[in-house]
Amino acid sequence: MIALLAHLLVGALAVPSAAPTAPARSRIEKMARILALEDTRSAGDGELERALADPDRGVRRRAALAAGRIGDGALVPALLPLLADAEPEVRQMAAFALGLIGDARAVDPLLAALKDPETVVRARAAEALGRIGDARAAPALAAAILEAVPKGAPVLAVRGDDPGRASDPWLSLRLGLFALVRLKNVPAAETVLLADGRPRFDWWAATWTAMRLEAPSLRPVLAAGVASSDALSRALAARGLGALKDASALELLAPLLRDRDELVAVSALRAVGAVGDARGVALVAPALRSSNVTHVWEALKALAQLPPDRSLRAPVVNLVGHDQPWIRAAALPVLARMDREEFALVLSGLDPDPVWWVRGGLATALGAAGDDVSLGILYGMLRDPDPRILPSVLEALRKARGMDALDTLRRMLDHPDFAVRAAAAEGIAELNAPGQSHALAVAYERSLPDVDLDARLAVVAALARRKDTRSLETLRGAAASDPSRVVR
Question: Which among 274, 387, 405, 478 counts the fewest CB atoms within 10 Å?
């Protein structure tokens, strides 16, 4: 009996004991781990996939967001089932994440999610389809948008929507329109924005959509936006009409130049300049005498795009002496365009501007004038004590003289200021003149001690446009041993 008991005891001791189970992670530990994976852009050897299937809906939602931000297509199969999750918050986050990843495998499941019973899920599915950019989605998106439009109103006027609020009732419509812009699908946008050729919406989001697509067929949307009571719609309509560059739009833009809302008036001034038609000069000219200096500045910028009109010489000359430096800087190019013959003569009666960037603007204007007197002034500006204006001077000389500016640019590769050397290298790259590889290679070596990388990057870009042996050797050396990872 004693022998039997001893045998049983030895047998029991010989049976290996079960390994202790690891304690389950708490919710906060899971969340912290997901955050760490997201921060390192890693799925963690299956950890994130397991978190996407966690019983806790909050963990699943946070894991979906992390998967989107990591952007790894390998996570798509684990995300797709969450589009059918019982929790709307999980479904909408899964849709959002799939859009961030941008994998075409998600298109069909997201198209199905456009019929989800929850508005926020439908909205995020539409947004995701726009991000993925698959043209197949456009007809279904258009149908989903039309389905979301309240029935009965000939024109749907939307005011007070809040893009920052997830519970905004217009979220699905807005994100659907934005998705069509990402898809650049004009026919689908026409279906949504127009009904029998007339605008379906009085809403900034619809006007923005037409503005961004820049399609003449959507001009009725922009024309309606001009007459909207919503200032943002009027401003967006002006921008859209300017982008179309249609001279017939000037009639629509003219009233907006006098709009009480500054954003609208400024957008209209920019649009008239963008259209570029000579009739726009008369529309813009009154703003030169405005008490609002922003309007004066925008008028000058518009005139710089419009055909020159010498009848405006006197008010523009007056603005060359304005007390605000940004007005002076904007007036100089306009005067140079409208009065090339006498531009340098006007300057001869003025002292050098005390503000360096105004002198830089003058350099740009002199380069545009391009006559002998202007070029003489430009070469004199190379001796300006403030090196910050020299990049503008070099660019002006390159545009005015072409290959004849090459010697000046090459000499400036030795300048002590890194920004000047960068501008010189960029100018040489634009000219693409042969035989400059040695000078660029020496400039690269000179820039190695620089803390700022601008000069070195500009030289590398210039060398990259050449195929000769010296350029390739310098590039290989930079790729192998430059002290900056960015440059390598």
Answer: 387
Which positions ≥6 away from 482 have C-beta within 8 Å?
448, 456, 488
Task: State pTM to two decimals.
Answer: 0.81
Q: Cβ(211)–Cβ(237) under 8 Å?
A: yes
Domain count along the chain? 4
**CB contact set of 465 (below 8 Å; sequence gap of 6+):** 429, 432
Q: Which of 304, 300, 293 is nearest to 316 (CA)?
A: 300
Interacting residues of 145 by C-beta distance below 8 A, sequence separation 6+: 126, 172, 173, 176, 177, 180, 192
- Please report, for residues 209, 299, 363, 456, the alpha-carbon distance to residue 330 in angstroms, rounded to integers and kept in the order given: 31, 9, 12, 32
Same domain, 274 and 233: yes
Task: Quick: pLDDT tens for 176-218.
Answer: 999 999 999 999 999 999 999 999 999 999 999 999 999 999 9
State how far Cα 145 lies from the chain centre.
26
| Residues spanned by the domain of 116 | 33-149+167-184
The per-residue b/e assignment along 241-270, b for 16 or more CB within 10 angstroms, e otherwise, is bbbbeeeebbebbbebbebeeeebbbbbbb
Are 389 and 481 found together in one domain?
no
Same domain, residue pair 61 and 175? yes
Tell whether 107 and 235 lie within a shared domain: no
Through-space distance between the first and last CA atoms of the chain, rounded to whole angstroms: 82
| Nearest-angstrom CA–CA distance, 147 and 204 | 20
CB 180 within 8 A of CB 189: yes
